[in-house]
Amino acid sequence: MSKTVGIPRTLAYFTFFPLWKTFLEELGMKVVLSRKTDKAVLEMGIKDSVSDACLPIKLFHGHAAELKDRVDYLFIPRLISADGCSTFCPKFLGLPDMVRFSISGLPPLLDYRYQVHKGLSWSDFPFFRQVGNCLGNNLQQIGAGYLKARKMLKCFQALQVKGLLPEEAMETIKLSEQKILQDKKEATSSGKLKVAVLGYPYAVFDPFINANLLQTLKRNDVDVYTVEMVPERQLQKMSRELEEDLYWYYSNRVVWAGLYYLSNSGFLDGIIHVTAFACGPDAMVDKLLELESRQRGRVPFLNITIDEHAGDVGLVTRLEAFIDMLKIKRG
């Protein structure tokens, strides 16, 4: 019988899930996801995490707690770097330890260091080899699983560049790519408002913690553009417009995507930045985006700050008022 590996449905899930899932399944494991974020998951996270943690970290604890009694292993890699240049938030680096010492009754953690070294092919392979060795696989199995997983990740990223949101891209990999891409094309209209929704993926794509932000925009005839829809070469091009990069992987990508959308004069109606309360790196990102929005064509800018309070009336009101303002501005 296959052993089960649990993956929390938050944080790096929105960036790396096809990579993790494919690799683990190729090694003969059964991958189990925590359920989608809901009030109970959030409350578990608030109870188990330290009080001064930001919302995403609290939420991760809740997802880990939801999984712990259903799996043989918990997959919580120690994320160091995904590009060889910037690092993840310090809380990402310490996340396995935070979870281990905050939640009782955990199964063994797969918490090896995930680190990419710039300019070196297969530089992240040691991480996969360690995971595979722990799960009892040989080098040939690990290598084959790694190659297939990298291929799946590239497919996932390419689908997002074509305009699919992460969950849509995951479904596309499973189902008919052509059908979903056609549905996406038909749903996109040149006459709709075009709004870039920027932020860390775990804040933008989790509908529970952001009060169903993306669906609210779509209901109001708004086309949504995200960080993940910008081609990698364009992100790297935008990085050269800043005197210095930020320290953090997700922060850099949000800023670069913002510069990319702002550089396409006349394309964008507005920018919404989704940020988590008490996130230190995001405080700098938010101010950078606001200043660039003013300087590059005076594009309307809205900050949406999310926290653990479940009430969404105020957020939705602000969002709908912003949409109304954009419609008036467009005329």
Spatially, the strands of the biggest sheet line up as: 2-1-3-5
Which class of secondary structure composition applies to the elements? alpha/beta
Distance between the termini: 62 Å
Q: CATH class of the largest domain, please?
A: Alpha Beta
Number of domains: 2
Write the layout of secondary structure elements.
Layout: E1 4-7, H1 13-26, E2 30-33, H2 39-48, H3 55-67, E3 73-75, E4 78-81, H4 90-93, H5 95-102, E5 109-110, E6 113-115, H6 125-134, H7 139-161, H8 166-174, H9 177-187, E7 193-199, H10 201-204, H11 213-219, E8 222-225, H12 232-239, H13 249-263, E9 270-276, H14 280-295, E10 301-306, H15 313-330
Parallel strand pairs: 1-2, 1-3, 3-5, 4-6, 7-8, 7-9, 9-10
Helix pairs in contact: 1-7, 2-3, 6-7, 7-8, 8-9, 12-13, 13-14
Explain how this protein is built:
The protein folds into two domains: 4-157, Rossmann fold (3-Layer(aba) Sandwich), CATH 3.40.50.11890; 188-330, Rossmann fold, CATH 3.40.50. The chain has a four-stranded parallel beta sheet, covered by helices on one side. By secondary structure, the chain is an alpha/beta fold. α14 (280-295) links the parallel β9 and β10 (301-306). It has 15 helices and ten strands.
Keywords for this entry:
four-stranded parallel β-sheet; alpha/beta; 13% strand; 331 residues; Rossmann fold; 10 strands
Short description:
The protein is 51% helix and 13% strand. The chain has 331 residues and is α/β, with parallel strands linked by helices. The chain has two domains: 4-157, Rossmann fold (3-Layer(aba) Sandwich), CATH 3.40.50; 188-330, Rossmann fold.
